[in-house]
Amino acid sequence: MRNAKALAPPRIVVVGGGAGGLELVTQLGNRLGKKKRAEITLIDGSRTHIWKPLLHEVAAGTLDSHDDELEYLAQASENYFRFVLARMSGLDRQKKEILLAPLLSAAGEVIMPARSYPYDILVIAVGSVCNDFGIPGVSEHCMFLDSTEEAEQFQSRLLEAYLRAQATGGPTHAGELDVAIVGGGATGIELSAQLYQAARLLNAYGLDRVKPSDIKIHIIEAAPRILAGLPERLSKATTKQLETLGIEVRAGVKVVEVTQEGLKTGTGEFIRAAARVWAAGVKAPNFLHEIDGLETNHINQLVVKPTLETTRDDDIYAIGDCAACEWSEKGGNVPPRAQSAHQMATQVLKNIHYRLKGKKQKPFHYLDYGSLVSLGKYSTVGNLMGNLMGSVMIEGFIARMVYLSLYKMHQLALFGVPRVLLLMISSFFRRRLQPRIKLH
Beta 48-49 vs 70-71: how paired, if at all? Predict the structure, then answer.
């Protein structure tokens, strides 16, 4: 029995099917699972995956999530790994088991009770959630864009508000359709541009009693300027473009409380808004805080070594937004971006191969390729980084094409070239047959 256990393939479990986790488990399945060299499992609390940078489009209704979502079970079947529908709630490192929360139906009935799942090598890739910084009223009165479900809920509430206003001949009181977005980073800015476009599309599709001017969109940012991580010139260009669209940008303004009617600022001003979106910062999920003795930082991220193994357990890796990985070239930690998760997944894939072969694992080196922010069809701005050209600021059509290519790179990692080409053809015809905004 001992020999049989010793010869059994290692059980590699990835928790979290986001950008990094899904790419990693797909590659592990095709390289190790296919050859029976390891048992590969993905655990996630959702049945489907959508690339998180697309959630602002889902929220505005300019993208139907069902057109771009991926079924985990289908991906698992085609790429030699197992999918388990569950949410991680804890960890038992001594037994090498992941603790899973009960699986509930939409009606709250227990489908599967709380249980555990064994592992030999564990990769935690559970991403991040919005950080409310303990500000009163945020959790009760704000909407978040951490998941497809939350984005779809926002879109549904937005459409209901428009239908209500259409039935009454237009808005009946101030702020009825106004949206306040807290956070002047990429998510908040991209959402504001999509909402601007959505207002015009809904008007064009027959909700003509509601004028685009009836909705006021506010962006509130505590820092002195929006897009603080990008060069100042791009921040100014983006601010000018947003103001041209009629979107109000308030930089250097702190929100101190949120109510059902709107936002209170540090200057005593009250910004009335029916819809309040919080996109002001991120943290790792609360359940990770010092989980079974693992080292975490003040925003619940798992502290990792250069090899992306956690500092207190070499059998556990962490990648993506939930990992606190030192960025020695710049100081601080690697930023929570899709490109970070992609690069970490690639390094952990290599390190697991080194580990199984008894070789020394290699340290992770983050390469910053720059940042891009899309204002939908109106503009795209950003900066590209490279060894040969340094930092280059780009805007307009070229920036838009680079931005779109990032999603294609994610799809290529999941599906390969032939299927991505088919998806592009399918998307081309679908977008010409379907409405340009989700109307249900």
Answer: antiparallel
